């Protein structure tokens, strides 16, 4: 393992910026677990915790899981033995309210973030990436970038299709929502004297990874 320094990171970036790929690589590099809101929700539901059941209730009712419930689960996860070696939060917080809630949780646990990393990709590149993306309608696998509409999934034989929210118009709307919500989060962290690093997320996966490691510094 290369990373020996303890790292507590937040990775932000619009949908399609490559957070999943780069987040996994960073986690491996620094030897830390990576948590997305989805991971934490799934784990809490699987374990049947009180918060997990509460979250399930909201989801069954077709409602968003409130921040307080998510932050409660986050507190559990970040105080776990696994997270003692550091962690990378993938795509959380997304709003200033969540950033404030997370700061309270970290304060209580006596922890500080080392950096908030913003993976920056121009909107046009994201529209291009996401509208070219094909996803298996059966197993959810994301197909390689040159896959044509209706090809067969290499894993299960299902149909590879464009997701309805990956069409260019919807992507542009998702990006607008993301930028409206998230730009203030980065400002908030800067005002709170948390180190914010912005890294260009275009180019080869390996190059982006090297750029990230250099910017984070370890
Ligand atoms: Zn499939």
Helix content: 40-55%
Molecular shape: globular
Query: Structural class of the secondary structure composition?
Result: alpha/beta
Biggest sheet details = 5 strands, parallel
Secondary-structure element string: EHEHHHEHEHEEHEH
Average pLDDT:
92
Number of helical elements? 8
Key structural traits:
single chain; 218 residues; alpha/beta; five-stranded parallel sheet; two-stranded antiparallel ribbon; 7 strands; 48% helix; globular; binds zinc ion
Characterize this entry briefly.
With 218 residues, the protein is an alpha/beta fold. Helices cover 48% and strands 13% of the residues. The strands form two sheets. A five-stranded parallel beta sheet has the order 2-3-1-4-7, with helices on both faces.
Q: Can you tell me about this structure?
A:
Helix content is 48%, strand content 13%. The chain starts with 6 loop residues before the first strand and ends with a helix. The protein is built from 8 helices and 7 strands. It has helices spanning 19-30, 37-47, 50-60, 67-78, 96-109, 123-131, 168-191, 205-216, and strands at residues 7-12, 34-36, 86-90, 115-120, 135-136, 160-161, 196-200. By secondary structure, the protein is α/β, with parallel strands linked by helices. The strands form 2 sheets. Strands 2-3-1-4-7 form a 5-stranded parallel β-sheet, with helices on both faces. The model has no long low-confidence stretch (mean pLDDT 92). It is globular, with a radius of gyration of 18 Å. The structure holds zinc ion. Zinc ion (ZN) is lined by residues 136, 138-139, 141, 153, 155-156, 158.
């Amino acid at each position: 393992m290369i990373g020996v320094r303890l790292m507590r990171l937040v990775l932000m970036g619009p949908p399609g910026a490559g957070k999943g790929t780069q987040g996994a690589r960073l986690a491996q590099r620094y030897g830390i677990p990576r948590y997305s809101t989805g991971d934490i929700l799934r784990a809490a539901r699987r374990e049947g915790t009180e918060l997990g059941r509460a979250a399930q209730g909201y989801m069954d009712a077709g409602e968003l899981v409130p921040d307080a419930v998510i932050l409660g689960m986050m507190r559990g996860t970040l105080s776990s033995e696994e997270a003692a070696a550091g962690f990378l939060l993938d795509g959380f917080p997304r709003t200033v309210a969540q950033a404030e809630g997370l700061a309270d949780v970290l304060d209580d646990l006596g922890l500080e973030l080392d950096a908030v990393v913003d993976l920056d990709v121009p909107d046009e590149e994201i529209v291009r990436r996401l509208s070219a993306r094909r996803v298996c309608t059966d197993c959810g696998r994301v197909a390689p970038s040159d896959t044509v509409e209706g090809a067969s999934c290499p894993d299960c034989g299902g149909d590879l299709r464009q997701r309805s929210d990956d069409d260019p118009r919807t992507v542009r709307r998702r990006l607008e929502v993301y930028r409206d919500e998230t730009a203030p989060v980065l400002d908030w962290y800067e005002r709170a004297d948390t180190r914010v690093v912005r890294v260009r997320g275009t180019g080869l996966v390996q190059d982006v990874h090297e750029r990230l490691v250099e910017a984070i510094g370890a």
